[in-house]
Amino acid sequence: MAETTITHAAPFARYSLRARTPQALEQVTGLKLPRKINNARGDVICLGPDEWLALLPDGAKLNMGDGLPVSIADISYRQIGIVIEGPRAVELIAAGCPLDVARIPVGYATRTIFELVEIILWRQAETRIHIEVWRSFAPWLCEALQRSSVD
Amino acid sequence: MFLIHCPYCDEKRPENEFAYAGEAHIARPADPSALDDKDWESYLYIRANPRGRHHERWRHIHGCGRFFNAVRDTVSDKFESTYKAGEPRK
Question: What is the ipTM for the molecules in this complex?
Fold first, then answer.
């Protein structure tokens, strides 16, 4: 599978955004949030009914909304990004992910698991999948992906 | 793979994204200090444990993270329906 590559993504400024309504967060941050759960819009992924993840260019700063009923946390260093790109990217993820990855449309992004490790999976293109994983799980995940690529 | 419908994601998702969280519709007493030991015991420990239709809480922990309620048959292990937390008992 030489043509499918597993690489570290460029660093991001990552923010976890929580609030009862997306409007409240949009007002504070100026970002446009996706309304549909498990979908990405631009740099922002909607993970749940009150939870979004923003993957902004490295060094970007958000207004933290002090005193407002929103929770905006910088989680840039909690997790790292892995990019799997190539014609067999989907097959590689399907080796350890219980979702029906082949049927996931482009633009779909969700929290799920790979074997026993929690990941965020974002299908950015037919042949490109971006994965977010907590740092401490990353060496194991990279190893597992490398091995399944050999298989 | 066993699939469970998450009412928040509105999708069928694989079972290993979910965690079981006990019997549903057990309301915390509004005034706990007014309870005697018997009532407190029944709130904490006494559960229906039926054979057949069972209302239970589940959490889509490796997904949207939300708790929701489900009706599952404890004999066949089939899910009859799932619904959002706070909605009336089905």
Answer: 0.88
